[in-house]
Amino acid sequence: MSENPFEVLKEDMENEEVYLKVNAMHRVKVVATLLGSDKIKSQLIPYFETLLKKEDDEVLFALAEELGNIAQIIPNQSICLLTLLEQLAGFDETVVREQAVRSITIVCGFLADNEIANTIVPMIIRLASNDSNFTCRVSAVSLMCPLYARAGNQKEKIRQKFTELCSEETPMVRRAVATKIGEIAQFMDKIHVIQDLIPVLKQLCQDEQDQVRLLCMESLMNIAKILNSGENKTNILPLIIQSAEDKSWRVRLALSKIFADLAEAVGKEIADSSLIQIFSNLLKDTECDVRVIAVKSLARFIKFVSPEKLNLIVPLLQLLSKDPFSQVKQNACEVIGQIATLLPKEYSQSKLQQQLIDLMADDNQDVRRNAAKSAGQFAAAIGPEALNQFVPFLKKCMDDPKWRVRKETMQTIIQLALTVKNPDVFNKQLESVFVMFLKDRAAEVRSMGLSQLPALIAAYKQEWAVGNFLSKCVETLSKDVGSLYRINALYAIQQISFAVDGPVAQDRLWPIVQKCLKDTVPNIRFVSIRVAKSLSKKIDNQQTLNQIKQAINELIDDPDRDVKFYAQEALQN
Amino acid sequence: MQRTANSKQTPTGRPQAQPTTNTQQARAPPQMIQNMARVTDPKHVPKEIRDQFLKKIHFCSQPYDFNDDTKNVKEKQERSQYLQELFDLLKEPNFVANLVVPHLDLIIEMIEKNIFRPLPILKKTATNGEIGMEDDDQLIDPAWTHLQPVYEYFLQLIVNEQPDVKSLKIFITHSFIQEFLELFDSEEPREREYLKNILHRLYAKLVPRRKMIRKAINDCFYTLIHETYKFNGAAELLDILASIISGFAVPLREEHVIFFKTVIIPLHKVQTCQFYHEQLLRCSMLFLSKDPTLATFLVEGLLRYWPFANSAKEVMFLNELLEVLEVCEISKLEPLIPKLFKRLIKCIAGPHLQVADRAMCFFENDYFLTILKSYKPFTFPLLVPVIAQIADTHWHKVLQESLNALKTILKEIDYQAFDKALNNKDPKYLYIIQDAKNQKKDRQKIEEKWKNLTKQALQKNPNFKEPIVPYSDTHIVGEHNGLNNGNITII
């Protein structure tokens, strides 16, 4: 019964299969809990030392993680784990050393400030100065960020080492620095950010490797967040300008990606005065991938500039909506919808409406789809008067050969109907487009319309449901040969039944369903049974109820198995 | 090659003005060469010739959008013409000495401006990417026809003897090499071929720059191993390395040994290894021919980075392993013997036929059999019971035959040891072919122990959270998915 935990671990680690060893490794905290701190130090850690040399990377990865867990078991003495972790942090395999860095951070959480100063800082410096192994230096960079704040009077030393690594010849290290420079800045006093980090950031932004420059972009944004407007203007803005003109499109793309956040970080003033101009160039970039991403950012970017400056963007949007590359247009649609909510109505109507309408007739189906989507937003922003102009085109979109476009259009129509909430507008403009779902070829579109029906009935009341709409359903039921259309119409009637009172259900709906119970297609018969069943829940009149019961009863001997089943089920409960 | 590229580039339907400018330009090179030939004092090139030459270089340095054939049609054609002329003039020694060499700075700048560009992502035109289909379509960079003449020019410039080391050296700086190496990631195979040839010759010619070039290549591989895991030009770089390695003096310098251990060996573990394995193998073998003691490190590396759930790569590893073993000194192998034989037996008993077949080939190798004999006390108890059992039960006839043959070989080597090993029931060696039920029972025993321990831990510390183990019998891929030989359980 009383197993020696350490022996069990060793036994399991003798296993041949790597995955079992990894499992065993993850159970180390059981062993550590039972052994207690003394034995962890005297037995477990020396044992782990032996593993370092012979085990597979998978096992060492697990070890690196578990050392962090052991630290939580012996928080006061976790310093003893550092020798192991330091070795793991210098390992070849990337995942192992990254995990080791995370665990070291956990350990540091338990250490007192003087321990950080006496043990951790020297360790970081040691790693950072390891000339033969760049992996150590990369790990050191990752460690500096979380620990800088606690380095006390040794901050200067770390800063110095960090900036030293920025001019490192090994590109791997420079890439690590470029990624982390924004992070470490968060922990530094502003004066040091400006004095120490900005110069090296400038240097990294001009690195010979585009990968390094690319990684700087995110950091640029993070640093911009902590500086004030004036500091950003002198320090960050030149770098943004320079990167926007970078010869590598990958860098320009990375910049485009973060441009909205960057605008948020530097604030409205700089965004208004300078960023719009820079961003305009990115939107006109020669590389189409850059434009695609830039337009995507534009949708958010417009929120961070003053509305009155937006008219600088509009001409660009007009240009982008005619871009030869369809993905650009696709994203431009979204922006047109967004920007309409921010611009004066007449202005967007005169400048962008035609563009959007053109996009709704684009060759590319994704463009048409997005355009239909944005049309809703656009029309809603401008108000009911814009509907006149859009509805004919939305109607055209409902004839699109691609069902995805039709589905998006249907959704737009429904959204519009739900936002305007004006029966007049609805009856005149939107309803005729909406009822097209009843006759759509694609099930997706039909079920889309069906699913939103309750919301529309709630908005436009019973009068509409049993009036115009019901007559359309009846039309479909009587004229349409396709059974699937009729089924769809039947379900629509079921939806209506949920919203109306007993007498209406009895007088208006039941006769329709009654007819359908005798349909030649079995599927329609059993759908009718289900609809009749839900009607019967609404109706109080005993005579009608008997009628329903009888009609279903007649189907109990139906030649079709499924109809029989549903009839029986309906009668049972 | 140049000519064909040009003629291809002149499709019909171009504006009428084109042919006339074309013929005018076409006459230029011979004229220029003739002019040059008439120059009596080679030290004093007439100003007009020099100006013409510089104008052309300058013209060729202009960037154009080569992805769009409809833009700057005229300029692009002119550019091709000029490049052709510049290229032809490289054949005139007099000209090279008096114009090219003095203006090497402008020429290199022209080359840099043309080839140092952010690499494009080549988009596949066909969208029918059926899964598992071999995609033989090469991706073609539309700019290539315009870049090729520049590369050709660069190559000839380096090959040419007149620009000497001293004058070239100034331009081939660290950042030049760095940018040059980045181009190796190009998806255009013809571009990589040029890059390879050029870098190769630069390395050969610029002795003072060799160390720097090697270091830059090193960094390139580090990036591949540690960060990107994919680099299109790895095979080409290894090709260059192969010839660099052949030039290493014996005994190897420490720097080269470090390179072997930190680059060549870890390159085996990269996921995209199959794209450059052939070249990697050549480099490895060249290293071993210089210093056979490195072989054990490579064997260790191979066993350490053994592929998982990738049988094609496993076959490659087996091929390499056998080749490397032949170089190993038998006595040095001792610490690796258990891992080596366990791996082999796993391959033989594994579910993949080709892998098993390759592993069986080891036993046809005399040197390997010597290794096997030298470590008989370990190898026999491991091999014999497994081989004996699967020789009886293997599902594939051909393999079963060779397993039987192997059984006979083992018997012949040492009959007594064979018998003894056959009766050995030590589960340590038998686990591979062990019955699934027994295996489970063994596993359960230790799982039980863990359970108890966890309970105790909970008693000791009520806040203790039970550990979550990442792998269970039901979700391990590849060889751990329960598909052991003779025990096929579909999960």
From TrEMBL, chain A:
<dbReference type="InterPro" id="IPR034085">
    <property type="entry name" value="TOG"/>
</dbReference>
<dbReference type="Pfam" id="PF22956">
    <property type="entry name" value="VPS15-like_hel"/>
</dbReference>
<protein>
    <recommendedName>
        <fullName>TOG domain-containing protein</fullName>
    </recommendedName>
</protein>
<dbReference type="InterPro" id="IPR016024">
    <property type="entry name" value="ARM-type_fold"/>
</dbReference>
<keyword id="KW-0677">Repeat</keyword>
<feature type="repeat" description="HEAT">
    <location>
        <begin position="197"/>
        <end position="235"/>
    </location>
</feature>
<dbReference type="GO" id="GO:0005737">
    <property type="term" value="C:cytoplasm"/>
</dbReference>
<feature type="repeat" description="HEAT">
    <location>
        <begin position="236"/>
        <end position="274"/>
    </location>
</feature>
<feature type="repeat" description="HEAT">
    <location>
        <begin position="313"/>
        <end position="351"/>
    </location>
</feature>
<dbReference type="InterPro" id="IPR021133">
    <property type="entry name" value="HEAT_type_2"/>
</dbReference>
<dbReference type="Pfam" id="PF13646">
    <property type="entry name" value="HEAT_2"/>
</dbReference>
<feature type="repeat" description="HEAT">
    <location>
        <begin position="44"/>
        <end position="79"/>
    </location>
</feature>
<dbReference type="InterPro" id="IPR055231">
    <property type="entry name" value="2AA_helical"/>
</dbReference>
<feature type="repeat" description="HEAT">
    <location>
        <begin position="275"/>
        <end position="311"/>
    </location>
</feature>
<dbReference type="GO" id="GO:0019888">
    <property type="term" value="F:protein phosphatase regulator activity"/>
</dbReference>
<dbReference type="InterPro" id="IPR051023">
    <property type="entry name" value="PP2A_Regulatory_Subunit_A"/>
</dbReference>
<dbReference type="InterPro" id="IPR011989">
    <property type="entry name" value="ARM-like"/>
</dbReference>
<dbReference type="GO" id="GO:0005829">
    <property type="term" value="C:cytosol"/>
</dbReference>
<feature type="repeat" description="HEAT">
    <location>
        <begin position="352"/>
        <end position="390"/>
    </location>
</feature>
<dbReference type="GO" id="GO:0005634">
    <property type="term" value="C:nucleus"/>
</dbReference>
<feature type="domain" description="TOG">
    <location>
        <begin position="261"/>
        <end position="504"/>
    </location>
</feature>
<dbReference type="GO" id="GO:0000159">
    <property type="term" value="C:protein phosphatase type 2A complex"/>
</dbReference>
UniProtKB/TrEMBL annotation, chain B:
<dbReference type="InterPro" id="IPR011989">
    <property type="entry name" value="ARM-like"/>
</dbReference>
<feature type="region of interest" description="Disordered">
    <location>
        <begin position="1"/>
        <end position="30"/>
    </location>
</feature>
<dbReference type="Pfam" id="PF01603">
    <property type="entry name" value="B56"/>
</dbReference>
<dbReference type="GO" id="GO:0051177">
    <property type="term" value="P:meiotic sister chromatid cohesion"/>
</dbReference>
<dbReference type="GO" id="GO:0007165">
    <property type="term" value="P:signal transduction"/>
</dbReference>
<dbReference type="InterPro" id="IPR002554">
    <property type="entry name" value="PP2A_B56"/>
</dbReference>
<feature type="compositionally biased region" description="Polar residues">
    <location>
        <begin position="1"/>
        <end position="13"/>
    </location>
</feature>
<protein>
    <recommendedName>
        <fullName>Serine/threonine protein phosphatase 2A regulatory subunit</fullName>
    </recommendedName>
</protein>
<dbReference type="GO" id="GO:0000159">
    <property type="term" value="C:protein phosphatase type 2A complex"/>
</dbReference>
<feature type="compositionally biased region" description="Low complexity">
    <location>
        <begin position="14"/>
        <end position="30"/>
    </location>
</feature>
<dbReference type="GO" id="GO:0072542">
    <property type="term" value="F:protein phosphatase activator activity"/>
</dbReference>
<dbReference type="InterPro" id="IPR016024">
    <property type="entry name" value="ARM-type_fold"/>
</dbReference>
